Amino acid sequence: MADHDAWRELAEIYVSLQMYKQAAFCYEELILAQPTIPLYHLAYAEVLYTLGGLENLQTAKKYYASTIQLTGGKNTRALFGVCLCSAAISQLTKGRNKEEESSELQSLAAEALMKDYKRRAPSMEALVAGMLKNMKLS
Amino acid sequence: MGVECRYELAQAAYVKLALHALKHPAAAVNGLLVGRLADPAASPAVVSVADAVPLSHQPHHLPLLPTLELALTLVEDHFQAQGLAVVGYYHANARRDDADLPAVAKRVGDHIFRYFPRAAVLLLDNVKLEEVVKGSSRDAVVQLYTRDSSKSWRQAGSDGSSQLKLKEPSTNVVLADHVTTKKWQKVVDFDDHLDDISKDWLNASLLG
């Protein structure tokens, strides 16, 4: 139970076979054993997103958020992940009135992404800005 | 529906995908194909693949949705201005003699097919790629798969040359040339970009 690399490899094999539920289980074990490693939170969030469904998306968003916290806001994948989750969740809950505190998280993530792109990859900035704007509307 | 749809592969797309595969010789790589329907009135229809966008090379990111969705959105938005759209997907297996189209490739292919009914999936043939690198082959190193009416991905012809055509006949020579200058080190895929956003996944400066 303590061989973390084995759990990781098993998770990757499950993902390559598209057995996402089993992969999620492996990542859960890893997060339980080493809760401060952002890599596991991120991988878990991605698998949950791939599984889909409202509950999984909401949990994925939480784990993307915890990744952001553990990496000090520097992980691009997690920032994008939050935006993708929010867009997908709002698609699923269209017509239902569920105005939670989530909108702040999404705009903060979007802002952080824009700042980063402005600083390090200005050529992509307009493209990413357009995409984020579309997501907020949907 | 163009059953006998022909595909024309531009040099830029072909070289980029081959270089991407060469950069990560031990891993499976994949990417998107961008292009347009060359002449809507022509029959059989010809799809012109103008460019390739490498996606990822890490086995635990390959089949997961977030990166793929992000890439599809950004690629569509960017290439729309040039009148191009996502027309296909390419895949290279990790193992040298693995010539099967894996399930994940079929899934992505199905997804793209929904938006572009003449979507193509290209599977890189690792053995042929080796020969091209040594400069001893003029065949295309990719195998074309198209979607037939039974919703499964079918290999196009035994040699594929009737449906898939390289736009510039000297493409393989150009590829071998790039290999000798170690151009494959400079290929940037979407995974690289997410790890360091200053890397350009459009590979604008790659082929000069």
Total of helices of chain B: 6
Question: What is the alpha-carbon Rg of chain B in Å?
Answer: 16 Å
Mean pLDDT level of chain A: 87
So, CATH architecture of chain A? Alpha Horseshoe
| Percent in strands of chain B | 15-25%
Q: What is the H/E order of chain B?
A: EHEEHEHEHEEEHH
Largest sheet of chain B: 8 strands, mixed
Q: Could you tell me which chain pair has the largest interface and how many residues each side has?
A: A-B, 27 and 23 residues
CATH class of chain B: Alpha Beta
Helical amount among residues of chain B, as a percent range? 25-40%
Tell me the number of strands of chain B: 8
- Oligomeric organization of the protein chains: heterodimer
Radius of gyration of chain A: 16 Å
Instruction: Bin the strand percentage of chain A.
Output: under 5%
Number of domains of chain A: 1
- Helical content of chain A (DSSP H or I, runs of 4+): over 70%
CATH class division of chain A:
Mainly Alpha
Instruction: Briefly note the structural class of the backbone of chain B.
Output: alpha/beta
Secondary structure tally, helices of chain A = 7
Tally of separate domains of chain B: 1
What structural category arises from helix and sheet content of chain A?
Answer: mainly alpha
